[in-house]
Amino acid sequence: MAAPMVEASPAVRVRSNLEELGMDRMAELAGEHMSLVASGSKTYAESMLELTDAQLAAVRERDLWRRVQKANFPYARTLADFDFSFQPSISRPAVEDLATMGFLERKENVVLVGSPGVGNYVGSPVMLGSGP
After folding, report:
1. What is the Cα–Cα distance from 36 to 46, expressed in whole angstroms?
2. Calpha distance 123→27 (Å, rounded)
3. pTM for the predicted model, two decimal places
4. CA neighbours closer than 13 Å in the CB half-sphere of residue 26
5. What is each CA distance from 44 to 51, 112, 118, 126, in whole angstroms?
6. pLDDT, tens digit, 9 for 90 and up, residues 29-60
7. Which of 38, 54, 68, 122 is the 20 to 30 A CA-CA neighbour of 128?
8. Torsion sign, CA atoms 50, 52, 53, 55
């Protein structure tokens, strides 16, 4: 005689559904957020906003990393990996400002100029940001 099937709890089903939909970050955080809503620490809307923000950030990070890999750069480093001693004339504050991408908001152009071997190419892949 087969044991009776026990239906999974709603919390387990929500996590399972999110995983099946490919929303792994939301699935990871769902249990904690259900507890916060149940205890009254967060409203349903606040919780959903945080969950969807977290999922969206994870998707964007994954998509960026895929594009960087597909671009076949010779290497991918973060700004933290950049060796500023390689070319002392490179202004660290200027590079860090470029990394904020503020020039886009200010509608400014950026051109890396220099003779071969002075570091204008070395910094280009670094501007991409960080990996997963």
Report:
1. 10
2. 37
3. 0.60
4. 21
5. 10, 48, 55, 40
6. 999 999 999 999 999 999 999 999 999 999 99
7. 54
8. positive
